[in-house]
């Protein structure tokens, strides 16, 4: 039997975390020849995930440049994939989510008339500039794709409204939940020594990330001021802010928060450190899409530092709340979860709508069904 050549393409840490369990699932199955191509849109943070999951890429475009532009990323991916596709000749390319690597990778596959599978398809904020450029990256990738692996029923409904044929949409759950089945350890000892000195049992630890492009400038200033107010008011709180390496983020975070007691400014952690920090935290305050999915799996309330989210399932389920970026609103919502036990319990105990740890299996089954190896269509993940 001729094996199906499946090339996974990813370039950032969030993509890698979510594609890693799928790569491992493809490697296990004799029906597939798994080919991994990374763009290294993010270099150091990507490599951390590759090491964690023991993934050795067959191709590495290594495109990252200092202060890189969206145009530069797009063109380097397009040009780099041209020769790789000619050499590898994949039957299908899998891309993930909403990064510029995702869009450029799907466009390159389309130019070479290669089938495209979109993992985590169908998420929408319905505003093309929020998040920017992710919303349009995801929509354009969807327009180019042949197979759509929607994580939830809501994502599938978005695709159906856009005219995607239901036959090619598979509801799979989110692969990040698959990844977390292997990364979270109850007796984990942090490699980052500063984290081992924090009293997670007796302190309310707030894990923070804030780095999205639309939050650069005044919104990030507002967020940092809110965190500063919380740290000064609540002596039983420790704030751990994982500060993105981008200078537009670092400059603001360090200027506002560097000298504030009980605020820990740390560089981005590797995946295992991040997941275990999340597991021991009291709540998560973030503008990250991935953390909106990951934290509820661990029973952690999420305050979303955005005005819209393409992940409404978490809000509907009650695990997440959109709080925007105005200082007073961010402050008041954090404060409420710190002092209102009932509100905290309600969010912490809400059901996670994003998966059961078997998304990668469903995606692999769907590909085999699409290529006629499996005769029975795989059942959809039952989300709400």
Question: What is the element layout, followed by pairings?
Answer:
Elements lengths: L3 E7 L2 H16 L3 E7 L5 H9 L6 E2 L9 H19 L3 E5 L3 H12 L3 E5 L14 H11 L2 E4 L2 H9 L7 E3 L3 H9 L9 H4 L7 E6 L8 H16 L3 E6 L4 H11 L5 E4 L4 H10 L2 E4 L2 H9 L4 E3 L7 H6 L2 E3 L4 H13 L1 H8 L10 H12 L14
Parallel strand pairs: 1-2, 1-4, 2-3, 4-5, 5-6, 6-7, 8-9, 8-11, 9-10, 11-12, 12-13
Helix pairs in contact: 1-2, 1-7, 1-16, 3-4, 4-5, 9-10, 9-14
Write up this protein.
- The protein is α/β, with parallel strands linked by helices.
- The chain has helices at residues 13-28, 44-52, 70-88, 100-111, 134-144, 153-161, 175-183, 193-196, 218-233, 247-257, 271-280, 289-297, 312-317, 327-339, 341-348, 359-370; strands at residues 4-10, 32-38, 59-60, 92-96, 115-119, 147-150, 169-171, 204-209, 237-242, 263-266, 283-286, 302-304, 320-322.
- It folds into two domains: 4-174 and 355-371, Glycogen Phosphorylase B (Rossmann fold), CATH 3.40.50; 193-349, 3-Layer(aba) Sandwich (Rossmann fold).
- The chain is built from 16 helices and 13 strands.
- Strands 3-2-1-4-5-6-7 form a seven-stranded parallel beta sheet, sandwiched between helices. The protein has a six-stranded parallel beta sheet with strand order 10-9-8-11-12-13, sandwiched between helices.
- Helix 4 links the parallel strand 4 and strand 5.
- The longest helix is centred in the first third of the chain and has 19 residues, at 70-88.
- The chain is globular, with a radius of gyration of 20 Å.
- The two termini are 38 Å apart.
